[in-house]
Amino acid sequence: MNPLDKLTYDELSLYTNSFSESKCIGHFQFGKFYRAKFNCPDRERHFVVKIWETGYNVLRLADEVILLRHEMMLNHPSMVQMYGFCADGEHLGVMYEFQASDSVYNLIAKDSFTWLQRIKVALGIASLLKFLHTGYLRYLPLIVRNLDAAHILLDEYGYPRLCDFSMATGGILPDRTVHKNDHVNGCYSHIDPYAGKKGKYSDKQDVFAYGVILLGLITKKVYTEEDRQAQLPFVHEWAQREHIANESGSVRKATRRSLVHESLTKDPDFDSADGAEITTMAMECINVCDYERPTMKQVLRSLLTLPVVKQHAPFLRVNKLLHPHKNGL
Predict the structure, then answer these.
(1) Which helix (H) or strand (E) holds 151?
(2) With contact defined as beta carbons under 8 Å apart, do 115 and 264 qualify?
(3) Band of residue 245 on the pLDDT scale cut at 50, 70, 90
(4) Helix, strand or coil for residue 230?
(5) Can you tell me the mean pLDDT for 65-92?
């Protein structure tokens, strides 16, 4: 395990062209992501710079450094590789080494984001959450707590990387499942409204947030600031109403049970069996009763039965996702 580079804020500014808006990928819960690069003697290296801008983040930075330099976390294909960090006075940030194309949040509503690309995201993040939730050896399961489509960046090959662990608890980190005075409960529109006592967390809150992301992927819906100002329903609220309406219809065909956007059903890689199955899975993840939600192990198992996954297993790196320990974990 190589030591992390300690970077200055001036270096991060240099790599991102003074944090130019043209380099900005998007927002995460506490700040922004930027594309960065610099030239080495042998090649051009690409990075993502994450800068915390709001909140008290010293401990969040420390937790990410601890988490992402641990040997257990180095080789899962949906984990980011941390190159270095910045704790330069009030300026806090990290650098991840990969070339980012865009965030899932930015891509969800776009027609160019294909069915197979969406399944690639769903599968990769499900595999990562299953790995984090399982717990290894003496470690507790790790709960992410702030899953959001905006926190998932795609690399140059379209594979997902989860890029924020600012609220993670358990695993190799201290157990913070009970924070009586913590007013931050997760990411807006992804927060589990059915959670029990405020401040009490379990892996079922991650399952709920994953369900919201999955619904976004199949319905092409994200919750925007304009939606918030107009007081429109969250994606999961809209989905629950639509699903109930479909289930109560007189014709109970698979196409009626599916919430997959009509444009995606015309994708050449879409199978009619995919729609109903993945919709059912997403609805189970956002179940009102958290104890009735599936585990991420069960979600991953269900995803693997989809025709699109069976037909494109090598492209989706199914074997690598199922056996991350063979890559050093």
Answers:
(1) none
(2) yes
(3) confident
(4) coil
(5) 88
* C-alpha span between 19 and 159 (Å, rounded): 25
| Per-residue pLDDT tens over the stretch 128-146 | 999 999 866 566 789 999 9
- DSSP class of residue 293 equals S
Q: What distance in Å separates the CA atoms of residue 326 and residue 98, rounded to the nearest whole number?
A: 21
**Range 229-254 average pLDDT:** 78
Residue 236 tokens read as 């999961």
Alpha helices, DSSP H, located in the chain: 9-15, 58-68, 104-107, 115-134, 203-219, 225-229, 235-247, 254-257, 262-265, 272-285, 296-303, 307-311, 318-322
Indicate the SS3 state at residue 178: strand
- For residue 207, give Cα distances in angstroms to 125, 212, 274, 291: 11, 9, 20, 11
Per-residue pLDDT, 158: 94
Distances (CA, A) of 77 to 121, 125, 200, 328: 12, 10, 30, 11
Which pairs with CB-CB distance under 8 Å and at least 24 residues apart come from 71-74?
Answer: 71/1, 71/328, 72/136, 72/139, 72/172, 72/329, 73/329, 74/1, 74/328, 74/329
All structural domains of the chain, each given as residue ranges with its CATH number in brackets, are 5-99 (3.30.200.20), 101-327 (1.10.510.10)
pLDDT reading at 192 higher than 80: yes
Q: Between the CA of residue 281 and those of 114, 160, 213, 269, what are the distances in Å?
A: 20, 20, 12, 19
Query: Would you say 81 and 99 are in contact if contact means Cβ atoms under 8 Å apart?
Result: no
Strands 5-7, 82-88: pairing kind = parallel
d(CA 121, CA 131) in angstroms, rounded, equals 15
